[in-house]
Design brief:
The chain has about 550 residues and is of the alpha+beta class. About 30% of the residues lie in helices and about 30% in strands.
Length: about 550
């Protein structure tokens, strides 16, 4: 395996996005029925209701009323009130008295009736822990009586000692089934069959998720004190998307969330049955290349050794994950930093072959967003090591072959090489007979040597900012310091994203973010930055974390 593993961060980020959407889904579900979800201190207790063939399960392991640390200007309270008002339910009066410390949402089956001819209808199960069974029973009766008054036809049945209530939904409502099981849980589903299967899973333990070896291994990896946990069965998630993966190395993934005084830490472990070659010697402190990244950077990626990235187990993970999430196996490099990918296309170079192959020491990549332009400035810092000098010479040769001139410049006594091209600009002449022309020099990139590092930038302004950086680098930024302090040491480097500076840029490149921001408005309104890293030395798993720093922390 390649010794550089920072790209696990992108997988972590994608998985966290799924958690955000799932939690929003909880609220959506409850708005049309009522709902709030599951969990427990030793892991999600509601896993006994979920099939071991379930593609995904997300659990909140604390009472939602305890999440006041994430609340600003009573946004969460307003959200709960507005959602429950649609179903005629008063949260404080009807739900809060009995709601316990666990809420779980699971996709229990890919197709409820297993009939491909009538389309795929996934089964959804919502489990809410109850601390007052009698009050929760009264709540279920109240909920369905209100739906009956709205025109729904109710059906009541006894199934293996459990009373199931469901309705024949009206066009404006979704079908809903509910039950109180024992003294611990209230269950809601989008079909009575989902509830029957859940009860069967409890009575036949070999059917439920707790009997799955993959789940058992994954749940041991969760963070202690986590307020939420998500489990993904990766092959079944791919099947859910109707995909046949070209290669399948990773089997399952678990994500756990912990809230601390600085923000929210989301840690993920991705498991495989294959042996993974241990990573390189981890880093015990931020790489020195970051000293040349200005504090104004919106995105900074740092680590060591990019020389074998494309053939690593992380690359296989990326291809599997992108095929699962996006429906296609995108190149592992293509989403590293879009401006660099644009350079790759414009110059006709291959990043892994022409650049990454000779980066065996420390590196840092940064983007500096500009309000006036859609394409941010970029920085690439490489530690001097064997092959760097030849690599730079090869880039000069590629630039020359693309019609660029290599010109020496001096900025504040610092010698710089600039890749430039000459262009002509036409101006209307005062003379009616013709037009005048001017020749302009356009800089396509620059590089210079500072200390033990070779530095590449997109433009003169960015290079000048680096040369005058003094004590204003990203490693001097208090927000960056707080963020990396939450990530365990040693690790394989960081991906740092300043949300306030990069939000508009990311929304242009990842349109689904706008939807996520709407669904998770209280969270995204408070988000200041996120930092991704990976760590751990287990040979059958990849472990990493994302730290979300919040404005009120």
């Amino acid at each position: 395996m390649n010794r550089q593993r920072s790209f696990i961060g992108f997988i972590v980020a994608g998985a966290i996005a799924l958690v955000v959407i799932a939690i929003a889904g909880f609220y959506w579900f409850f708005a049309k029925s009522p709902a709030n979800l599951i969990a427990s201190s030793s892991g999600p207790s509601a896993a006994i209701f979920v099939s071991k063939l379930s593609p995904a399960m997300v659990s909140l392991l604390t009472n939602p009323d305890r999440l006041q640390a994430l609340e600003r200007e009573e946004e969460l309270s307003k959200l709960k009130t507005s959602l429950f008002a649609k179903s005629g339910i008063d949260y404080k009066q009807d739900i809060q008295p009995w709601l316990g410390n666990e809420i779980t949402l699971a996709i229990t089956t890919l197709d409820i009736d297993r009939d491909p001819e009538n389309g795929q209808q996934p089964g959804y199960l919502l489990a809410l822990a109850t601390k007052q069974p009698q009050k929760s029973r009264e709540f279920v009766e109240l909920l369905f009586s209100k739906r009956a008054l709205s025109g729904a036809n109710l059906t009541v049945e006894q199934y293996k000692g459990v009373k199931l209530i469901s309705d024949n939904s009206q066009p404006e409502q979704d079908l809903l089934a509910g039950a109180v099981v024992g003294e611990s849980f209230v269950l809601f589903a989008n079909d009575p069959k989902v509830l029957r299967d859940a009860i069967n899973n409890v009575q036949a333990p070999d059917l439920n998720l707790t009997s799955s070896p993959e789940y058992q291994k994954a749940i041991k990896e969760r963070l202690k004190g986590g307020l939420a946990v998500a489990f993904l069965n990766l092959p079944i998630v791919a099947k859910w998307q109707g995909l046949e993966l070209p290669e399948q190395l990773y089997n399952s993934q678990i994500i756990s969330l912990v809230l601390n005084s600085k923000g929210l830490l989301a840690e993920t472990t991705i498991l495989t049955s294959s042996e993974i070659v241990p990573p390189s010697t981890p880093l015990s402190k931020p790489v020195g290349a970051l000293q040349y990244v200005p504090a104004s950077a919106g995105l900074a990626i740092s680590g060591s050794n990019l020389s074998n990235l494309g053939d690593s187990d992380l690359a296989k993970l990326w291809r599997q994950a992108t095929a699962t999430i996006y429906g296609s196996g995108e190149d592992v490099v293509s989403r590293l930093a879009k401006p660099l990918a644009d350079v790759q296309k414009r110059w006709g170079i291959n990043l892994p072959k022409d650049i990454f192959s000779w980066v065996q020491g420390e590196y840092a990549i940064a983007l500096l967003p500009e309000k006036e332009q859609t394409t941010p400035h970029w920085i690439f810092v490489v530690e001097k090591s064997e092959g760097v000098e030849q690599g730079v010479a090869r880039l000069d040769a590629i630039a020359s072959s693309n019609g660029l001139s290599i010109n020496p410049l001096t900025i504040d006594k610092q010698k710089i090489s600039a890749w430039t091209e000459l262009t002509t600009a036409t101006k209307k002449s005062d003379v009616k007979e013709g037009a005048s022309f001017s020749i302009e020099t356009k800089v396509q990139g620059l590089h210079t040597t500072l200390g033990n590092y070779e530095i590449f930038t997109s433009d003169l302004e960015t290079m000048d900012e680096i040369l005058t950086i003094k004590n204003n680098s990203i490693i001097d930024n208090p927000n960056f310091k707080d963020s990396i302090a939450a990530i365990p040491l040693p690790n394989q480097g960081y991906i740092y994203l300043d949300w306030t500076k990069s939000q508009k840029l990311l929304e242009r490149q990842v349109p689904i973010l706008k939807l996520m921001e709407v669904l998770g408005k209280p969270f995204f309104n408070n988000l200041r930055s996120l930092t991704v890293s990976n760590y751990g030395t287990d040979t059958r798993s990849l472990k990493g974390g994302v730290f979300f720093k919040l404005h009120n922390s």
